[in-house]
Amino acid sequence: MNRQSGFTLLELVIAIAIFALLGLASWRLFDGVVRTQQGAGQHERDIRALQRAVGVIERDVWQAVADSVVLAPGHLQLQRSHWRNPLDQPRSERQAVIYRLEGTTLWRDSVGEGSTVVQRQKLLGDVRSLSWRVFDRQRGWHRETASDTAPLALELIVSAGRFEQIRRVLPLPEALP
């Protein structure tokens, strides 16, 4: 008797179909993991950009010279020095710093004392809205600085990228003990 061993055509087709389904499921799983990782990476980059921008603003506000904060529609201007030392003596030069929104980009312009060179820094892109307010004891929160009172705090509200609204309240040096 002549017995042949092997697979029939139907068995081969079924095996190939099962292998194809497993391959397709594996590909979809891999593709989902890669897309999730890319989304998380972009979200992390957006958070870092926002943290960096707010950190620069915080540093400038904490180093602001008394009575130098000028808040007007569309921009914030202040004079900054460096950290105060224990004897409260002046340290190095002052800088005029202006924050302004141009299109969807938040810019920081700074000019050193006695210099004409403006250093422009792109602080944050994809900004949908930006608002500033200052707080003083007499008038509370308002959108423009008054010449007769020194503000005690600065509020920043920004909507950028995937972040709907980020609010930071920063004490000015006059409010710190």
Automatic annotation (TrEMBL):
<keyword id="KW-0472">Membrane</keyword>
<dbReference type="GO" id="GO:0015627">
    <property type="term" value="C:type II protein secretion system complex"/>
</dbReference>
<dbReference type="InterPro" id="IPR010055">
    <property type="entry name" value="T2SS_protein-GspJ"/>
</dbReference>
<dbReference type="InterPro" id="IPR045584">
    <property type="entry name" value="Pilin-like"/>
</dbReference>
<dbReference type="Pfam" id="PF11612">
    <property type="entry name" value="T2SSJ"/>
</dbReference>
<keyword id="KW-0488">Methylation</keyword>
<dbReference type="GO" id="GO:0015628">
    <property type="term" value="P:protein secretion by the type II secretion system"/>
</dbReference>
<dbReference type="InterPro" id="IPR051621">
    <property type="entry name" value="T2SS_protein_J"/>
</dbReference>
<keyword id="KW-0812">Transmembrane</keyword>
<dbReference type="Pfam" id="PF07963">
    <property type="entry name" value="N_methyl"/>
</dbReference>
<dbReference type="InterPro" id="IPR012902">
    <property type="entry name" value="N_methyl_site"/>
</dbReference>
<protein>
    <recommendedName>
        <fullName>Type II secretion system protein J</fullName>
    </recommendedName>
</protein>
<dbReference type="GO" id="GO:0005886">
    <property type="term" value="C:plasma membrane"/>
</dbReference>
<keyword id="KW-1133">Transmembrane helix</keyword>
<comment type="similarity">
    <text>Belongs to the GSP J family.</text>
</comment>
<keyword id="KW-0997">Cell inner membrane</keyword>
<keyword id="KW-1003">Cell membrane</keyword>
<feature type="transmembrane region" description="Helical">
    <location>
        <begin position="7"/>
        <end position="30"/>
    </location>
</feature>
